[in-house]
Fold this protein.
Amino acid sequence: RRREAVVATTRLSAGYGAAPVLEAVEVEVDPGEMVAVLGANGAGKSTMMRAVAGLHRPVEGTIVLADRDITALKAHAIAGAGLALVPEGRQVFPEMSVRDNILMGAYRRRDLKPGPEIDALLKRFPRLADRIDQRAGVLSGGEQQMLAVARGLIARPRILLLDEPSLGLAPAMVRELYDALADLRDEGVTILLVDQMATLALAIADRGYVLENGEVVTSGTTEALKGDPAIEAAYLGIA
Ligand code: ATP
């Protein structure tokens, strides 16, 4: 492991009851990198994200965040150490306003300047500007996803974890969201991204890992992965 990694897992294994789901997974994200984890339905992508965020206890292995071993920490402590998870299914608070949902992400910030920081996020996600005082529950799926990303960003995390951000979104929304994610990458935000739509993730990430049945079967730059037959095999479930 290179010392400067923002997040690095070592032989990370996890499961549900006796069923192993992740086996000895080693994933690393360096500062300013956007890294994609690819794999079919059920390959273990969400379990990996949840384990890194402290929402699922690993059976074995270690997780390091900015040189600190966070393996045994609870989710709130990991968030405090600088990790923000944008969970699968967005999980916004439907009864709260868009503004209050965003501010929920900042509850640890002592130096928050709510006015200018929310303005900056609304420039990034203009669709949210018209709806800032509405209940989050009335937003479309794409708008809720943008809100969930904004809520993650306002924490000013060392790393942003995005679990299936394109899931269930209309194609135009997916494009808009991915354009915003590409901007974040260009600005040097460190991102670990899981998406079932491999071509999308490969188009914007710097590097990728392919998970198959809970194991990393191949990894490399996205340029190299684009031509790798292991990608197709992983999605077709061919071992
Ligand atoms: P998906 O895109 O479908 O979420 P994934 O790659 O994210 O796929 P996981 O959600 O991590 O995969 O699931 C990996 C395996 O773990 C699957 O076989 C799934 O059925 C199983 N699994 C996930 N969550 C649980 C749970 N809470 N209890 C039992 N088994 C689970």
Remarks:
- Residues 16, 21, 39, 41-47, 196 surround adenosine-5'-triphosphate (CB under 6 Å).
